[in-house]
Amino acid sequence: MGQIQQTENSKDVDVQIIQDMYKKFVLECPSGLLFLHEFKRFFGVAATGEVSDYAESMFRAFDRNKDNTIDFLEFVAALNLVFRGELEPKLRWSFKVYDRDCNGYVDRDELKAIINSIYKIKKGTKKDEDDFQLTVDEAVDRLLRAVDTDNDGHINMEEFIRGAQLDPWVLNMLQLDMNPAGWVLEQRRKSAQF
């Protein structure tokens, strides 16, 4: 068994898991930097398609210093957040996934692109059929009505977080994207089968 260490937020950290992640990271990225194509390969994602688009959005959110690479510390910090984080930091991270052009706002097109990717990924796994009672456009319209409080056509981070915290349906829709941990594990499982 790995060593267990207490962190500031009183969650246990398995040192062996971190060491194993580091070995895999260095094996895949000897330079110590993970580029987008390596990120996709790391998680067994094809170069194009809906899953690829979602992976690119995740990559941008992981890349905290916006240098188009992910170093090991960025990688571990992001995985720690999505696996163990509290709701508001997860929502902040999720907002970054939605904000594809990094301009501080999520517009209709960005919202539609991510929701569409998530729908296709989820339908491909045959899970959560109830999540698809609305079309992508209907879901986008409903999210904008619920979250865009100033009706300016785009959602800032404050609106995004407040909307998710106040409306259970909005939170459920955003949780489709807030569970990259499940997506990561599923992609790792699929890539291990090949």
TrEMBL record:
InterPro entries in alphabetical order: EF-hand-dom_pair, EF_Hand_1_Ca_BS, EF_hand_dom, Recoverin
Query: What Pfam families does the annotation carry?
Result: EF-hand_1, EF-hand_7
Repeat listed as a keyword: yes
Q: Which CDD domains match?
A: EFh
User: What region holds the EF-hand domain?
Assistant: 50-85, 86-121, 135-170
UniProt keyword annotations, A-Z? Calcium, Lipoprotein, Metal-binding, Myristate, Repeat, Sensory transduction, Vision
GO annotation, biological process: visual perception
Sorted alphabetically, the Gene Ontology cellular component annotations on this record are: photoreceptor outer segment
Signal peptide from the UniProt entry: none
SUPFAM superfamilies the record matches: EF-hand (SSF47473)
- Give the domain of life: Eukaryota
Single GO term (MF): metal ion binding
Q: What is this protein called?
A: Guanylyl cyclase-activating protein 2
Q: What lineage, starting at the top, does this entry show?
A: Eukaryota, Metazoa, Chordata, Craniata, Vertebrata
